[in-house]
Amino acid sequence: MAAVNGEMASAGADEFWLFGYGSLIWKPPPHFDRRVPGWVTGYVRRFWQASQDHRGTPEAPGRVVTLIERSFWASLADAHDSAPEKVWGTAYRIEASHVAEVKEYLDIREINGYTIHYTPFHPADGSPSIRTLVYIGTPDNDQFTGPQEPQALAEHIYRSEGPSGLNRDYLLGLEKALNELSPESGDAHVTDLSDRLREIEAKSKKGETDIQEPVSPVSHEFRRVSSVDEQEETEKV
Ligand code: BEZ
Fold first, then answer.
1. What segment(s) does the record annotate as region Disordered (predicted)?
2. What confidence tens digit (pLDDT) does each residue in 20-47 have?
3. Does 109 sit in the ligand 1 pocket, CB within 6 Å?
4. pTM score of the predicted model
């Protein structure tokens, strides 16, 4: 990869880079040979994408993150009315010999409203930016929910579950993964929802809430073996 005077590094013809800002941070794709912490700009991360296939079901969709263009987000009424300039995450370089296989794997992820975009990624170590592929659920997709009231959103996440597991594990996993990336990679939207969720869990343990527990709509043992879910589980590092 060539770096020219701080400009975007040009990737080799048959390699590609992928930016993860959600579960990809802690569940890498197969066959990556470099994993780089860093950020993108111009976006805001929000739990505004309904999930019917991973952390919820078609009957009871959960909530996962998407990226919203910052200028569009600024035009919305969001109770979380600030957002970091940098959206932290992880970029993965996929080995040339595995690009076709990984693209097929990623195409599965595209289901449920996400589409492919490209954005410059800035490595945390200050090395030149990299053009990365990123999956985004844009506001025109059917699963985009728009602004959510934080307490209602935390309660929704608390009671949701899908083939990839509990929605609350996705939220808390994201909070942990972000905190581990860098001292400055925390995201107040994610932390506030996590704090609310922990409070709901604590109240639930004491029998002080009537929020419904997940009803296990999908048996994890019988989930689709050809789907990304299985790969997500086997690619844990
Ligand atoms: C992510 O982790 O960045 C991600 C994964 C699948 C779809 C969209 C985003």
1. 201-237
2. 999 999 999 888 999 999 999 999 999 9
3. yes
4. 0.86
